[in-house]
Amino acid sequence: MRRSFRPSVRRLAAALVLAHSLAGTGALAQYRPPPMTESQRLAREGEAAQVDASAAATSGDKKRADAKYRKALELFEKALAAEPGSVQAAAGLGAVGLALQDYTRVAERLTPVYAANPDSLELAYPLGISLFKLRRYEEAVPVLQKVTVANQPEHLLVHYYLGNYYALIAMDGEATVAELQAYLAQRPDKVAANDYQIHELLGRGHLLKGDPAAARLSFQRAQVGRAESVSIQMGLGAVLEMEGKMAEAMALLEGLTTRFPQVPEPKERLGRLLLDSRELPRAEVQALAQLKLGSTPAAHMLMGDVRMAQGRPAEAETEFRKVLDLAPGDVGAQISVGMALQKQGRNEEAISFLEGAVQSGADSLELWATLGSVNRRAGRYARAVEVHRRVAEMAPKQALGHVLLGADHFATGQWDLTIDDYTQALKLEPEHAGAKKWLARALAHRARDRAGNGRLDDAVRDLRRAFDLERSSAMARRLGAALIQQGSHAEARKVMEQGIQLPEAAWREHLVLGYARLGAGAPKEALEAFAQAEKMAPDVAAISDVSAGSALAEMELGQVDAALKRLTDPGTSKRALEVTRANLSRAYLRRAFSRLEAGDGAGARQDVESAERAGVGGNSSDLGRLSGFAKALAQTEEGRFADANTLLKRVLSPTPSWARPNIRQLADAYVLYRRDMLPQSRKFLTAAIKRPIPEQSQWTSALTSALHRREAERAYASGNMKAAEKALKAALALAPDSAALQHNLACVAYRGGKSADAVATWRKLEGTVPQATLNLGIDAQERRRSMGEAVDAYRRYLASGTASRAATVREWKDRLQMLYGISDSAPTSNPEPSSATASDTTP
After folding, report:
1. CATH number belonging to domain 151-244
2. Is 294 exposed, middle or buried (0-12, 13-18, 19+ CB in 10 A)?
3. What is the per-residue pLDDT for 528?
4. I need a surface site. Which of 7, 747, 789, 796 has the fewest CB within 10 A?
5. Environment class of residue 248 by beta-carbon count within 10 Å: exposed (0-12), middle (13-18) or buried (19+)?
6. 779 to each of 439, 609, 741, 748, 756, how far by Cα in Å?
7. What is the pLDDT of residues 387-439, one digit of tens each?
């Protein structure tokens, strides 16, 4: 950059003093400035030559300008030699040196002077620019930053240089945008035509900041000045990449390769994108096209990467070695050669090559990292750990070294060390995706080992932490399964209901959800989860696994026949067979108890025998004793009371874990009831409910009511209406809405002479209790002698469809019609039949 002439501060001060002395009083006129030193005289002559050079350059006389600049440089050199610390001479040399682009001379001469005068912008500006041009960025940037802080218009280009550095070397988006916006705010209108360069760099800065919208706007502004600039178009392609529009980005780059066939950069970038998307044939086309333009490191590197992706490591090695021939010491190529050797199974060569690279002075963090990883893949774990510890020491504030150590320890199954490594990595970089992923996997592995060693609570803690780190359906499944094993079904259900919403959730996640819901007491929702799992199941074995779970849910829902159908045909899945072995006998017993409730003793006994064949674990096991209990109840239903008593004594002494303390008394009360030994049954029942158990209340109430009803029936049959009435009222107190009890109490009232009350009750119950219609007919025939009403009532009773004494009643009806000549006309009413039952009691 050329420096316009500007008189030094000393010269300006001297001139002002001289002017003042010429116009002042006689006394002041006696003042004379001190004589100039040799250095000052030479610097003054240098400045004069510099002014002449600038004038010649402005007039277009380049030859004369060059000569004058070199004369000025010579004078400034002499001035600086005469006075090595002269800021005036050094500043003049710096300005002229920039004009002549003699950056090495400027850097060499100005560095010691600037060190002694670090606040001098006259020195900082030419020194910083020269260091920058020499690519000595670590020295240049601090100097230029001092200049830019002053924010002087004459130092405008410093903003541009720093913007370039931050955009292309430091990759600092915030700093890039700040410097270039400062440049645009100060640049003169006459240089606005070159703003496209600034906007292009601004676009790159916004890309570094992760702001694609601002980047697109900057690149579009740059297009105004250079519509067909390849670099600007590639910037717009990078915006599309950041937005995830890969197809559009590749289409844009493909257009550039067509319009600018001799430019290699679009081919390089398009090849990389195609490589990332695994479109290897198209990527190879771009690599070959780039090589045709010239044998460059970038072209051979792309071709090597394509060959590696194609599984051709030997050819890839050749390409990477060509890169090293063209650019010796290229770290990326050295790493790639090592990886290519390893892919060929030449592990020792790969290690030797990389060891040689680091020993030759290539002290690259990435190279050391690769060396350790190659050792790990070759099974040399100790050396891998040693090298990766060095990586951690080289970059103590980065997670890289700890992540690599974690991979080494992961490979050897040292879960505690692995977890420590990745935990340390996350302390340094809390959002490191790789550290989170592999820490979660290591925790899952340690949890598996802990669960296998009986440390289930520790395993669950590990898996909770793993699920927090990796919100994946697979991790949810692991945690859900462990929680089910722990017995925490409600939490397992919550986890799995999140898990099935995550990407890649499949049939296994729905299967575990089904078991979690089942354990949490929600069999209906469990069956829904199993149904979804069955829809997603990929094969017959998976369907068998799901079917086993569905069987358990159906069993809980009382759909025992459906459950047994599944369990008796489990398929070939090992898991399904395990579920079947564990639950088939239980399913048979569940159906046995259902049949006992329906009074089907023979069917219940058959199910118990099937359960025993399926395996109940022996008579001493809980399941074996439950089987014996069910068999005893079946024997009771079949009237084998002695066998039932013997079996109950054996299976209920001592009280099994599944039974309540009063189970023996309740069982004896029931057997005695079935034997019609009502007082003895009541005695055992009364003793059993002295300390009521809430879940037994319905059953004990039903047995108490049954005893009252049976006592009422016996009293009624023996003619003891008072005892029958008392028993029926006691039963009715337990079930006030029982139509059957109301009917039978009316029969007792009828026998006691309260005919009108009884008939009123029967009329109210007609259509609900068929016997009520029958009793109305008997009353009409025998008490009121109304044969037509009797025939009509008998006809309604027969039409109810539930007439238990149909043959007898039909005979009565036909006889009355024959004796009294009553026609067989339609009945006067036809109440709806009812499923209600009542004792077949008639007055």
Report:
1. 1.25.40
2. exposed
3. 96
4. 7
5. middle
6. 88, 51, 19, 14, 10
7. 999 999 999 999 999 999 999 999 999 999 999 999 999 999 999 999 999 99
